[in-house]
């Protein structure tokens, strides 16, 4: 059994059980995929487990709305959704009727920001590897 399987089982068990106390941390990051710059949207639970990922070319209300709908459909409601200052989040959450669940603060979203680090390390390592082959 691999770590991804364990996480999937754990999250699926928690899905219907205690979603009322779940706190999500939502964030986006700029990544290069096949030489093209895109946005990777991520939702992380209060324990640091990645719940949902979504890739788009834009960082607007429509992208945030699609991502949040996907996360809510798959994992149910959360008690709080912690975001950064991006204006697309309140616009999308207002449309979903979840604006009162949104929490925003300077350091509150560090859990989501820290999940980007392994991805960045892997991205950097792959870039170095490509450069060594080219050389």
From TrEMBL:
<dbReference type="Pfam" id="PF13610">
    <property type="entry name" value="DDE_Tnp_IS240"/>
</dbReference>
<dbReference type="InterPro" id="IPR036397">
    <property type="entry name" value="RNaseH_sf"/>
</dbReference>
<dbReference type="InterPro" id="IPR052183">
    <property type="entry name" value="IS_Transposase"/>
</dbReference>
<feature type="domain" description="DDE">
    <location>
        <begin position="22"/>
        <end position="132"/>
    </location>
</feature>
<dbReference type="InterPro" id="IPR012337">
    <property type="entry name" value="RNaseH-like_sf"/>
</dbReference>
<protein>
    <submittedName>
        <fullName>Transposase</fullName>
    </submittedName>
</protein>
<dbReference type="InterPro" id="IPR032874">
    <property type="entry name" value="DDE_dom"/>
</dbReference>
<dbReference type="GO" id="GO:0003676">
    <property type="term" value="F:nucleic acid binding"/>
</dbReference>
């Amino acid at each position: 059994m691999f770590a991804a399987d364990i996480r999937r089982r754990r999250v699926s068990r928690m899905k219907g059980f205690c979603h009322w106390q779940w706190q999500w941390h939502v964030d986006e990051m700029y990544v290069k995929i096949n030489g093209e710059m895109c946005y990777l949207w991520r939702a992380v639970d209060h324990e640091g487990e990645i719940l949902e990922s979504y890739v788009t070319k834009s960082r607007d209300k429509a992208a945030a709305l699609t991502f949040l709908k996907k996360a809510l459909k798959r994992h149910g409601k959360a008690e709080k959704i912690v975001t950064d200052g991006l204006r697309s989040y309140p616009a999308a959450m207002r449309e979903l009727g979840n604006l009162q669940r949104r929490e925003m603060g300077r350091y509150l979203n560090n859990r989501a920001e820290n999940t980007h680090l392994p991805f960045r390390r892997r991205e950097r390592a792959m870039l170095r590897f490509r450069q060594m082959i080219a050389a």
